[in-house]
From TrEMBL:
Keywords: Membrane, Transducer, Transmembrane, Transmembrane helix. One of its GO terms (molecular function) is cyclic-di-GMP binding. Residues 404-630 form the Methyl-accepting transducer domain. InterPro entries: HAMP_dom (IPR003660), MCPsignal_dom (IPR004089), Nitrate/nitrite_sensing (IPR013587), PilZ_domain (IPR009875). This is Methyl-accepting chemotaxis protein. Belongs to the methyl-accepting chemotaxis (MCP) protein family. GO terms for cellular component: membrane. Residues 310-363 form the HAMP domain. The chain crosses the membrane at residues 289-309. GO terms for biological process: signal transduction. The keyword rRNA processing does not apply.
Length: 763
């Protein structure tokens, strides 16, 4: 970029800085209006004239600054889009009419304090976002970058301080008790303020004396003068006790601290404007000198054209190429060495110097970016750690409550099951008693049937005796017939033996005939002999058949006699069978009756046993229900204890945060002294760079022992200080933030005396 471009850029930066400063003033004035209006709306009454006048003044100042900033943006052209801010301003303007009527006494359409606070906060955030966009557009290397960052951090502090002021002012005005969410919001705002403050102080490397003075005044006002009241109000919000101060007193104290922050922010804007003006003047002066040099060069070219063509054009072209590469960001380009002391040589020397300066500027920018990133990481880590602690405590308590609730539900189910068991056992015992009574009645009826069956058996037994005598007589006759039949059968057996012999011989002859036929000798002579033998056997068989026929006739006669005898036996046996059937039926009835009686008795006994068992189950169920009631009572006590433990843990976390606020309120001194931190994991050597009555910051040396984790306890040893017990509050990539844990008041007094001595300059 040439000198004319640099001058134009400086003028543009001045205009952007003026617009940014106007937005900063507007945001501060609107924050005052936001807090005052929220408190007046929460008071539920007509506002006093003084408060309304203060609010109107802040509103007018904010509107004037906002209008000038927006007009400047329109005149410049380009830049960030102001539409979101204009939309937020229009929404807030729509509420202001209702607010003014409410503060005049007409509360009918008054907006809720939370609605007003949200709309005002949205406008302030839109103004801050637009200002950051302008700062980004106006950002340049070096001091301007750091001053822009300082102004941004101070703006963040004033914004969150304004939120804390407004939200607590509304609660104090209404006399309401802060909820846990509101307390956490106030403490979170405090953390954002502290984080932005730490970043702003880290960037005050080469700040001007006026800015240093304004920052020190802001520190005195916010962290010392206003800190006691702020701690009292936060403690009252945490504990739910009455507010220690009135709303006007709280608002005035917070406003003084915020005004000091806004003044420091305004001073940072003035320093930026002065620096940009200096750069602009330097650019314009450079442009004038460049113009003079250009005219001289033209004259020189006219006189020494031929010399220029021979001695200057080629080196100048090389130099131009190098400058172009440097302008494109290639800072590793090698610059040719100057071979003469003429303009080209000086230009080469200047180019080499420019490259060195650009490298240093890039390294400085990277260092500043790293420092900003570390500060932001530390702030985010602190907020995340606090949120994680609260979340873990709440999660553990909720898990305990949920588990005990599940146990309570299970116990209730068991209690219900025990009651159902008692009811079922009682019903079954009654049913068994009814069944036993019915079985007893059935046993009596079965006994009556048994008596009748016995009488019937006696009658049928007499009939059976007569039938048996007839059967004996018929049996003797049948025995004689069967004897004769046996003799006939014996003779038939003899005849059958003869026939069997004849049949054997016939079979043998048939075998011989078969053999002869097989031989087939002499045309069948053997067959004639065989045929004669067969004929003789046939005659013998005929005679035997006649004898068999006669024997069979005799057998038939005897068989008929036996048949008659057997018929008599059959009749007697049939009568006997009838009698026996009747007896069997009577016996069966007797058996059934007897079985019925036995079964009735068994059922009665079983029913009585079941009734006793059901009654025992009912007694056991009653005892179990009593035990279950005891378990329910115990679980209820455990749940109540878990809720109390959760409350105690949250109070401890927030009280620890307030103690950390006390530590940050102490004045710090910048020191450079060797020290070591002894902890459970070893010893960490380093340098103390920041010291106050509440704690210190230690930068560990490279290659030293391991650093402890956050929350670890240790002992700090440093020259000029007594050995101190410390707690590691925060650990970053480059430093350890320690909190002093004084054993007694005497130890604290020794540290205070050491700080009063020449240990370092005030930060």
């Amino acid at each position: 970029m040439n000198a004319f471009g640099e001058a134009a850029q400086a003028r543009a930066h001045q205009r952007l800085n003026m617009a940014s400063a106007g937005l900063t003033d507007a945001a501060g004035a609107f924050a005052v209006e936001r807090g005052l209006t929220a408190g007046l709306l929460a008071a539920n009454g007509a506002a006093n004239p003084a408060a309304r006048t203060t609010m109107a003044t802040a509103r007018a100042r904010g509107e004037t600054a906002l209008r000038q900033a927006l007009d400047g943006l329109v005149a410049m052209g380009g830049g960030p889009d102001p539409a979101p801010l204009q939309a937020a301003h229009a929404r807030l303007e729509a509420l202001r009419g209702d607010v003014d009527r409410a503060l005049a006494g007409d509360r009918a359409g008054a907006p809720a304090p939370a609605v007003w606070f949200a709309a005002a906060t949205a406008q302030i955030e839109a103004a801050v976002a637009l200002r950051r966009g302008l700062d980004a557009a106006a950002d340049v290397e070096g001091r301007v970058t750091r001053l822009v960052a300082v102004r941004d951090r101070l703006g963040e502090m004033s914004e969150y301080a304004g939120r804390q002021r407004g939200s607590l002012n509304g609660l104090i005005s209404a006399g309401a008790v802060a909820s846990l969410e509101q307390v956490l919001a106030a403490v979170t705002a405090e953390g954002r303020i502290d984080g932005a403050w730490a970043q702003a102080r880290a960037l005050l490397i080469d700040a001007s004396s006026p800015l240093q003075a304004k920052v020190s005044a802001a520190e005195q006002s916010w962290y010392r003068d206003f800190a006691p009241m702020r701690r009292q109000v936060l403690a009252a919000a945490l504990q739910g006790t009455p507010w220690p101060v009135a709303a006007p007193e709280w608002f005035a104290g917070a406003s003084r601290g915020i005004d000091a922050l806004l003044q420091a922010q305004a001073q940072a804007g003035e320093d930026i404007a002065a620096l940009l003006a200096t750069q602009r003047a330097a650019g314009e002066t450079g442009a004038t000198w460049h113009l003079v040099i250009l005219v001289a060069a033209v004259l020189l070219v006219a006189v020494l054209g031929w010399y220029v063509l021979r001695r200057i054009v080629r080196p100048l072209r090389e130099t131009t190429n190098v400058i172009e590469r440097l302008a494109q960001g290639d800072l590793e380009t090698e610059v040719p060495a100057a071979s003469s002391q003429d303009e080209v040589g000086r230009l080469l020397i200047a180019t080499a110097h420019f490259r060195t300066t650009a490298r240093e500027a890039r390294a400085l920018t990277e260092t500043q970016a790293k420092l900003r990133a570390e500060a932001e990481s530390a702030r985010v880590a602190a907020l995340q750690e606090m949120g994680q602690m609260v979340e873990e405590i709440g999660a553990r308590a909720i898990a305990t409550v949920r588990g005990k609730a599940d146990d309570l539900a299970a116990v209730a189910e068991r209690l219900q099951g025990g009651a159902a068991t008692v009811a079922d056992a009682t019903g079954l015992a009654r049913a068994d008693a009814d069944a036993a009574r019915a079985r007893t009645d059935a046993g009596a009826a079965a006994a009556a049937e048994l008596t009748a069956s016995i009488r019937e058996i006696a009658t049928q037994m007499d009939r059976a005796a007569g039938a048996s005598r007839n059967a004996v007589t018929c049996g003797v006759r049948a025995q004689e017939v069967f004897t004769a039949l046996e003799t006939s059968v014996r003779e038939i057996g003899e005849v059958a033996g003869l026939i069997n012999e004849i049949a054997g011989r016939t079979n043998l002859l048939a075998l011989n005939a078969t053999i002869e036929a097989a031989r087939a000798g002499e045309a069948g002579r053997g067959f004639a002999v065989v045929a004669g033998e067969v004929k003789a056997l046939a005659l013998e068989t005929a005679r035997s058949t006649g004898r068999i026929t006669r024997r069979i006739a005799t057998i038939e006669e005897h068989s008929r006699a036996a048949s008659g005898a057997m018929a008599s036996i059959t009749a007697s046996v049939a009568e006997l069978d009838t009698v026996a059937s009747a007896v069997a039926a009577a016996v069966e009835q007797q058996s059934a009756a007897t079985a019925g009686i036995a079964e009735a008795v068994r059922d009665a006994n079983a029913a009585a046993g079941r009734a006793a068992s059901r009654m025992a189950e009912a007694a056991e169920g009653t005892l179990h229900s009593m035990q279950t009631c005891g378990e329910v009572n115990e679980i209820a006590h455990v749940v109540a204890g878990s809720v109390g433990e959760m409350k105690t843990s949250l109070v401890s976390v927030l009280q620890a945060r307030i103690r950390d606020l006390d530590r940050r309120a102490d004045r710090r001194q910048t020191v450079r002294m060797p020290a070591r931190l002894e902890h459970a994991g070893g010893t960490c050597q380093g340098t103390l760079v920041d010291l106050s009555l509440g704690g210190a910051r230690l930068e560990p040396a490279a290659g030293t022992g391991p650093a402890p984790a956050a929350g670890a306890l240790g002992r700090l040893i440093a020259e000029g200080l007594p050995p101190l017990s410390v707690t590691l509050v925060q650990r970053t990539a480059r430093s350890l933030h320690l909190r002093f844990d004084f054993a007694d008041a005497a130890e604290k007094a020794r540290v205070q005396a050491a700080l009063a001595g020449p240990m370092g300059r005030a930060a």
